[in-house]
Amino acid sequence: MKLILLPEPEEPIPSLSVSHNQGLLQWISSVDHKQIGIMYLWLSVIFLVAGGIEILLVRWQLAVPNNHFLNPEVFNQLFTMHGTTMIFFVAMPAIFGFNTYLVPLMIGANDMAYPRLNAFSFWMTFFGGFLLYFSFLAGGAPDAGWFNYAPLNEYNYSSSPGIDYYCSGLLLSGIGTVTASANFVVTILKYRVNSMSLKQMPLFVWMMLINSFLILAAFPSLNAALVMLLLDRQLHAHFFSAAGGGSAILWQHLFWLFGHPEVYIVILPIFGIFSEVFPVYSRKPIFGYAFIIGSGMAIALLAFGVWVHHMFATGLGNTVNNFFAASSMLIGIPTGVKIFNWLATMHGGAIRFKVSMMFAIAFLIEFTIGGLSGISAALVPIDWQLTDTYYVVAHIHYVFIGGTLFGLFSGLFYWFPKISGRMLDEKLGKWFFWLFVIGFNTCFLVQHALGAMGMARRVYSYPDLPGWGILNLISTVGGFIMAIAVGLLVYIIIKALKTGEKALRDPWDANTLEWTTSSPPELKNFDHVIPVNGARPFRDFKRPDDADWKKNGQQWKIN
Amino acid sequence: METGPIIYQWHFDPFILALAMCIVYLYYKIDGFRQQKDIFCFWTAISLFVLLEFSPLHFLGMHYYFSAHMLTHVVVLLICGPLLVISIPNKSPSPTPKNLQILSSLLYKHAWLGWFAGVGIMWFWHFPVVFDASFTAMNNHFSIIPLLHAASMLIAGMLFSWPLFGPFKNYHIHPLSGIVYLFTACTSCSLLGLLIAFAPLNTFHYYTNLSNSMNMGGLNPWGLSVKSDQQAAGLIMWVPCCFVYLTACIYLLQRWFRESGIQKNNQLVKLNTSLIEHD
User: Fold this and answer.
1) pLDDT for A45-75, tens place per residue?
2) Which of B245, B267, B269 sits opposite A197 (nearest CB)?
3) What is the DSSP secondary-structure string of chain B?
């Protein structure tokens, strides 16, 4: 079969060679989407270690009652930096790393629409992250929590420059995120191989398309709030200062107008990863392709109608609370639809329990636990009782770790052979999986109980009340097990890069276009792209007699 | 204010009735006054419209509650308008459809006009100055403002939904563009809703003054505070409206996927002939 000739871009992509002799400079100056994607991923690993060390110190402090290992100021800085780091500089860069690397490959393009803008987006994130961490050297890190509530973020309550670095760092990375999203939208809509209609686009790409619109709608709110806060702190404006005629609650509105969609921003691409992983390891087509897209759109739209559930305890009144309690419970429906899509995809499939698939299956359980605790917190009386306790800490970690991080690990084990050309050690990978899952549940399951028992979050120490000491100790042990697991993962990656088995072009018998390239792909992704007649083009190409488009009753005779 | 039970507060407005009759006349004129096959959507829209304008809900909106007023707006704009558009027949020998075709073509080429009509009318009537002035005028006898108010909402709802659900399928904007159209409209409505929900209490003087009179012994049939009432008004525009837009988005997506078979076949044929050869 002759292949479709991929049209070359009219203007050449800036010259890059992986065998270039300029070493690090070659990476720094790169505008190639694959290299930028890899740099995003390494950036997230660096910050994962940093954020992990911060929280290990916090957990060590909380391991026993009345501990004085850390003083309150350092404790505040550490938990603030942990949360900020994990969300803005681990989850986001990791997601953007996968997207930047994979989206062009999955749609049959040779690069992003705007390669220089792509590099700009990465470097803004890079410098944003390091600017945030520079605060440790500049007089103190931010200490008002990752959502940085007013008036605690105002100069009168936090006079160290940490909050200024928070604003500047997040503003830089926020600009990078917005520009990257605009780049994704154009790339996906304009740079798909000619034969790939939107209805044949991989679900991972679909989720990223929806996500990009969500980012474009949500991030301006955060960026505006950060500028307003900087004006408050540096030029004595009064946006969030009640004494000056401003409103402290305005910060919460602006932050959560971004912050709740952000929850979906870091989970929709993960849904995309799972929508690739489940079919491949179940050796079945995805169940309900259209429903996954539809529910993704529903999630994106509803994300702007529920943010006030983060503010039930601020005294907005019963009328407001009741509306948002109802809408918050309804948003569980589209997410539930997806869970059933994946379960149905697995049903009757010939499942291969590779590490990637194991993380995907574990996600179904852990994320559902996080979802259920979220639904419970959407009930106003329960929220009033449990807000600002460890119950909420447990909930957010079941969503962010059980959802986002498990998805990233699943994606890592799935695409690592393509990205690196080496196979990850499956046996060690399974050790990593079990260690991480056990550590994660040990750390966070007990926190539901701690929250219900009334232990407030963000207190640097606690009294020796019945049960609190032992549950906190269990949680700390779980945290250290997770740390060991992450150490093992780093070892697995380094081992694979140095001595790992060489990866074939298509080690998982996968479905999508990125697997048609060599592992790792050449600098120029494609000379030719196979025909795209369905959502599983590579499988159709490998099994022409069993192609999806034939089963759909569209008997198409090839001459 | 001395009134009987709310349930008996039905008020007849001849101008609104005339408007409804005009719509009925135009609807049947489109198809040369022949028996229409699918009149359910049309009569549901007209009945709802008349019911809302004459019923105790309208009375509540005019004399007590912002939230009742907002509910009327939302239903007229987002339910009655689209239902009327859906009900328009597209096959007729009379000359009227030609006008419809011109309108469809215009709104297809410039879909932003429909978007702006739907979103703009909501913002216009809720600017505090316009809002207070319109209520003052509406309480005058034989004022034309109630008619303008109701008609503008209904027509804006029709124009808004025309590029999505108009009578000629070839003048429908692409379903995915339609989803962006609805998404941006939803965001805009949410913004207005949240501004109303969290606006200071003296922003809309008409209801603040009514509330003061209620506190001085006037009737407050459901015992709502002015703050709760204003919040409910904003939230009705914000949250339930989002679900209306979402429902329309899901419908468009379903329509797009339903069309897939035809499009896919065409594409395959095209590929087969022009790009792919077999050994």
Assistant:
1) 999 999 999 999 999 999 999 999 999 999 9
2) B267
3) -----GGG-----HHHHHHHHHHHHHHHHHTTTPPPS--HHHHHHHHHHHHHHHSHHHHHHHHT-HHHHHHHHHHIIIIIHHHHHHH-----SSSHHHHHHHHHHHHHHTHHHHHHHHHHHHHHHTSHHHHHHHHHHHTSTT-SHHHHHHHHHHHHHHHHHHHHH-S-GGGSPPHHHHHHHHHHHHHHHHHHHHHHHTS-TTSSHHHHHHHHHHHTT---TT---HHHHHHHHHHHHHHHHHHHHHHHHHHHHHHHHHTHHHHHHHHHHHHHHHT----
Exposed / middle / buried, residue B253 (Cβ in 10 Å: 0-12, 13-18, 19+): buried
Q: What is the pLDDT of residues A82-107, one digit of tens each?
A: 999 999 999 999 999 999 999 999 99
Q: How many CA atoms, within 13 angstroms, populate the side-chain half-sphere of residue A34?
A: 23
CA distance B57 to chain A (A): 19
Measured between beta carbons, the chain B residues lying within 8 angstroms of A327 are 239, 242-243
Q: What is the 3-state secondary structure (H, E, C) of A4-39?
A: EECCCCCCCCCCCCCCCCCCHHHHHCCCCHHHHHHH
Read off the amino acid at residue B230: Q
The domains of chain A, with CATH numbers, are 36-266 (1.20.210.10), 318-324+333-503 (1.20.210.10), 505-521+529-550 (no CATH)
Query: What value does the mean pLDDT take over residues A434-456?
Result: 97
Q: Return the SS3 of A554.
A: coil
Please check whether residue A114 is in contact with residue A36, taking contact to mean a CB–CB distance below 8 angstroms.
Answer: no
Q: Which helix (H) or strand (E) holds A528?
A: strand A528-529
Instruction: Give the pair of three-digit tokens for residue B217.
Output: 């012994």
State the complex-level ipTM: 0.81
Q: Which residues of B touch A304 (CB under 8 A)?
A: 186-187, 190, 242
Residue-wise pLDDT tens digits, B154-188: 999 999 999 999 888 889 999 999 999 999 999 89
CA distance to A68, A363, A407, A430, B36, per residue, from A426 (Å): 42, 18, 17, 6, 67
Q: Is the pLDDT of residue B274 over 60?
A: no
Contact residues, chain A, for B269 at CB < 8 Å: 556
Q: Which of B77, B88, B252 is nearest to B172 (CA)?
A: B252
